[in-house]
Structures are given as structure tokens and as C-alpha cells.
């Protein structure tokens, strides 16, 4: 009996050992992805930084019970207590090593920006060659999403820990580059004018670093109706005081930005909370616009709801100019901890416009 038990245990260990590294090396879109320890990868609404030969994937930690706060009942904004920001590292984009929690939430002080009751979403990290700091920006918010602020944290190393700098509404006291007198005229429902003094609302966001090292924050503003494209200061720690409005009244969120052949592209989503909707795409010759809206870049079965997912980042693949991975979250609104990932290559049609087609798996070979 004892012998049998030890044989069974031995067999289970063997199977477990084989399953761990094996499952970590095949990323099946929409399945549960595991890290090199065989644990589910917990990095939602995230983005990737490539630094000195290593990819670092930062994302929201979704853990604990999913609940629907009373204050969010009207729009179905379920949530979990904020878990902070995780980081995973990889050299091949498939085997991801858990680097730990690089920006923890705060379970002790309910008045802290990073309090677990608050919102910490869509973290993005960029490297500032001048200051040699890794700078993280994210969507910081109150439990009912009405604070609509940007949070900033900074680290000397890519895998943290990040020191929290603070949060604010961007561009307080600054007029957009492209605002007309009518845009600025105070009036009912004019959120841009309302927030000119105190700073603009900022929810879903991404960061983009241009070839010359200038960085920009794209954030859904004016209660998600209009996107702002905001240049960052040289140290990347605050807005530089130069921003433009784009997609006015188009309600685009979940922005992901990339550059190809000197042109800027954006992929985003509509505003339907965790529920999927048709993706948006757009192109511009200058980062501040004008941006020309294109059609839904997704093609094939499920394209009308972005393959049941929502954009979060576009990754330029290192050493393969013109090769991009579009990263999406497949949210599970009633169990946010079980939200999944969908990564798809971006191809370009005869007119050079981005196309995202379904593939079952994500591997580097799929990108060729
Ligand atoms: C989505 C947004 C997510 C998250 C969610 C909350 O619209 O893209 O990042 O904020 O709403 O319900």
C-alpha cells in the first residue's frame, strides 16, 4: 500500500513537473496563461517595456472576491480590491517569470491614493534614459471612478520596487493646443472648460515614447468622451503643459499607440465597461493630430466584439522593425481574477492600414 502511494505521488510529481514549464511555453489565446512557476499570470490592463534584452510586463493584480459596489450599480462596474501592480519578465514573450508586486496597494490607510478600496488600473512603464529611472503611470481613482486621476511611480530598476510619487488631474490651468473659443466657453456639459482650472479627468490611459525620446500620455478625458494626448516633461514625471484633444465626443478608451513608417496609429475600444465592443483604430501624421479614424481593425469571426476582449497595449517586437503584437484583455466581469489575455499580431493591408485577425495561439513564430 505504502509503495503504491509513493509510486502515485512520484507519478503526480512527474506529471506536475512536465505540465509546469510546458504550459508556460504555449500561450493559447483566451486560456489561462501561467508563469514559469506554473501560476496564473496576474497582469491585467497592462503594458510591456523592453529593456536591455528583456521584456517586462506590468499589469493590474486582480485578486479576491469580485463585487459590485452600490455606487457603480447603474453601469455595472464590478471590481475587486486593488491589488497593486505586478511585473513579469521574459526574453521570448512566452515564458514569463514572476518578478513580484512592484507597486503594492495599501491595505492600512483608506485615505491613501493606493488604498485597496481605490482603483489602480492600466499601469504602463517607460524608461527615461536621461534620469535612468523607470517611470510608471496608471489610472488612479476613487471607488466610484469619479476622481479620474493619473498616478505616477518611479524606480531605479525595471522590477521595482516603485516609489509612489503622487496623483493629479493632468494639465491644470492649461488650454489644449487645438481648442477653439467655443471649446473653451464655459457652459452646461462643457467638461473641458469646467476642468480647465483644476485639471482634466483622466481614466483609461497609455504611454508612448517617440523616436526622439519625447513621451506622451494618451488618456480618456472629459468623462471618457474625448481623448487627450499630453506631452510629458523631460523626466517623464508630469505633463509638459502641451496637449491636444482628439476623437472629440467619440467615447474611445483603452488606448494603445504605436508608430510605423513615420505614422502614428491608435487602437482603442468603445466605452461599455468590462463588456466587449467593436475596436476603434486611427492614424495620424503628427502625434497631436489631426487623427483620422479608421474602421474596426479586427477581422473575422468575433471581430465585432474584438474577439470578446479589449485593447490594452501594442508592443513593437524587439529586433523586428514593423512587427507588432496587439495585447487585449478578455475580462471576466463576475470573476475578475479569471480575466484572460489575447495577443494577436498586427498585419497591414494594401493601404498600410492595421488589421488584427484571430489566431488560436500566441508564439513568436505566429508573428512571422
Ligand atoms: C472599462 C475600462 C477598464 C475598467 C472598467 C471598469 O471601461 O476600460 O479599464 O476601468 O471599465 O468597469
Characterise this structure.
8% of the residues lie in helices and 40% in strands. The chain is mainly beta and 368 residues long. A five-stranded mixed beta sheet has the order 18-22-21-20-19, with no helix packed on it. Strand 14 and strand 15 form a beta hairpin. Mean pLDDT is 94; it is low at 8-24. It binds beta-D-galactopyranose.
Explain briefly what this protein structure is.
The chain has 368 residues and is mainly β. Helix content is 8%, strand content 40%. The chain has a five-stranded mixed sheet, with no helix packed on it.
Q: Largest sheet, order of strands side by side?
A: 18-22-21-20-19
Q: Find the structural class using helix and strand composition.
A: mainly beta
Give the helix proportion (percent range).
under 10%
**Average pLDDT level:** 94
* Percent in strands: 35-45%
> Rough shape?
globular
Bound molecules: beta-D-galactopyranose
Helix and strand element order = HEEEEEEEEEHHEEEEEEEEEEEEEE
C-alpha termini separation: 53 Å
Number of helical stretches of at least 4 residues: 3
The total strand number stands at 23
Give the uncertain stretches in residue-range form.
8-24
**What Rg do the Cα atoms give?**
21 Å
Mind summarizing the main beta sheet?
5 strands, mixed
Amino acid at each position: 500500500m505504502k509503495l503504491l502511494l509513493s509510486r502515485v505521488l512520484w507519478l503526480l510529481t512527474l506529471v506536475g513537473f512536465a505540465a509546469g514549464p510546458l504550459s508556460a511555453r504555449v500561450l493559447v489565446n483566451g486560456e489561462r496563461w501561467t508563469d514559469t512557476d506554473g501560476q496564473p499570470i496576474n497582469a491585467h490592463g497592462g503594458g510591456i517595456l523592453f529593456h536591455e534584452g528583456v521584456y517586462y510586463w506590468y499589469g493590474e493584480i486582480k485578486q479576491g472576491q469580485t463585487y459590485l459596489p452600490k455606487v457603480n450599480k447603474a453601469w455595472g462596474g464590478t471590481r475587486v480590491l486593488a491589488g497593486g501592480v505586478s511585473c513579469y519578465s521574459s526574453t521570448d514573450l512566452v515564458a514569463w517569470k514572476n518578478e513580484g508586486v512592484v507597486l503594492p496597494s495599501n491595505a492600512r490607510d483608506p485615505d491613501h491614493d493606493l488604498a485597496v478600496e481605490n482603483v489602480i488600473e492600466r499601469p504602463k512603464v517607460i524608461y527615461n534614459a536621461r534620469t535612468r529611472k523607470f517611470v510608471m503611470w496608471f489610472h488612479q481613482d476613487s471607488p466610484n471612478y469619479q476622481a479620474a486621476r493619473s498616478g505616477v511611480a518611479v524606480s531605479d530598476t525595471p522590477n521595482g520596487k516603485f516609489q509612489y510619487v503622487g496623483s493629479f488631474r493632468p494639465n491644470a490651468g492649461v488650454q489644449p493646443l487645438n481648442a477653439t473659443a467655443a471649446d473653451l466657453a464655459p457652459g452646461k456639459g462643457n467638461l473641458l472648460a469646467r476642468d480647465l482650472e483644476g485639471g482634466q479627468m483622466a481614466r483609461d490611459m497609455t504611454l508612448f515614447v517617440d523616436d526622439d525620446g519625447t513621451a506622451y500620455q494618451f488618456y480618456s478625458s472629459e468623462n471618457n468622451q474625448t481623448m487627450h494626448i499630453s506631452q510629458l516633461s523631460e523626466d517623464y514625471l508630469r505633463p509638459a503643459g502641451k496637449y491636444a484633444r482628439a476623437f472629440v465626443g467619440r467615447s474611445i478608451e483603452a488606448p494603445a499607440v504605436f508608430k510605423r513608417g513615420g505614422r502614428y496609429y491608435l487602437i482603442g475600444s468603445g466605452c461599455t465597461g468590462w463588456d466587449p465592443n467593436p475596436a476603434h483604430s486611427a492614424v495620424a501624421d503628427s502625434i497631436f493630430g489631426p487623427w483620422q479614424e479608421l474602421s474596426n481593425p479586427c477581422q473575422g469571426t468575433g471581430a465585432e466584439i474584438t474577439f470578446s476582449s479589449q485593447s490594452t497595449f501594442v508592443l513593437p517586437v524587439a529586433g523586428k522593425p514593423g512587427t507588432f503584437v496587439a495585447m487585449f484583455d478578455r475580462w471576466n466581469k463576475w470573476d475578475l481574477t479569471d480575466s484572460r489575455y489575447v495577443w494577436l499580431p498586427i498585419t497591414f493591408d494594401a493601404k498600410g492600414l492595421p488589421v488584427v485577425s484571430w489566431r488560436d495561439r500566441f508564439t513568436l513564430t505566429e508573428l512571422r
